[in-house]
């Protein structure tokens, strides 16, 4: 789904579109000496509303100022209709999503002063009353937008914390299983293995006694003890053969709370990660990549591939979003570089084959 269409389907955007439709309907109820010009102005305003957020930042700010001017032109054209000032409420709501609060209130004040001066030419209107009403609507729209944005930021923060806790819990559970497996292997080797070895030595000594030689039961007991000792040694060897941490479970737990982008994980069979610091670094790289792909690249999919070459773990992460031609490294990427550098690793960033951001890291295992 295109980004602008996804933006228009949000509740606040849908409310804005319905309001614009109601304003257009009010234009049909009265005749205007400006003829088609009011429809051209209204269409330009709607077009700017649709493409908002889908253009570069500087263009977006300039477009918002143009929309404010168009709104004032329509107020001038449809001064007696009484619905055109609603456009100023929409402009303030859009500005609240992009501009600092002081700039938003300054824009609202400028539009209200301009609207007051326009209403002065009408004898049967009370300019101060109309401006006060629409000023209240503007304040309500701005505050509603602020609270909606704050709720979204809080939701995202909770989602990230929850994902972090789920992934960390998976790593801790995996580490606890490894520690328990190692403890059991030591107990088997040190206790059972030691006693079985002593029993075999005693059985061999008994078998060497001429008085007991030839007893089949004694030979069978010595054979069974040898087989049991070999089985225990095999069990201990398999328990000590550490397959490494199960990173796939932790990575999927990390990505589960994200509605998008979807995370595709591929881990080569030979990959073995035994160091918790390396595992945590991989998780943080994946977490920051998911955040950047959702917040900045508008990606739908993120692919993560783990491979091992000699004693280095290779981490390749790529999304299908739109990475800028010139990458600006913020705090998130700086944090990733610091984590990788702390492990004496390497980190490279660039554009991928699908146009998104590609991250390549090498970590010692």
Automatic annotation (TrEMBL):
Gene3D superfamilies: 1.20.5.1930, Histidine kinase-like ATPase, C-terminal domain. Signal peptide: none annotated. This is Histidine kinase. One of its GO terms (molecular function) is phosphorelay sensor kinase activity. Keywords: Kinase, Membrane, Transferase, Transmembrane, Transmembrane helix, Two-component regulatory system. The chain crosses the membrane at residues 12-30, 36-55, 62-79, 99-120, 127-149. Pfam families: HisKA_3 (PF07730). GO terms for cellular component: membrane. Residues 180-242 form the Signal transduction histidine kinase subgroup 3 dimerisation and phosphoacceptor domain.
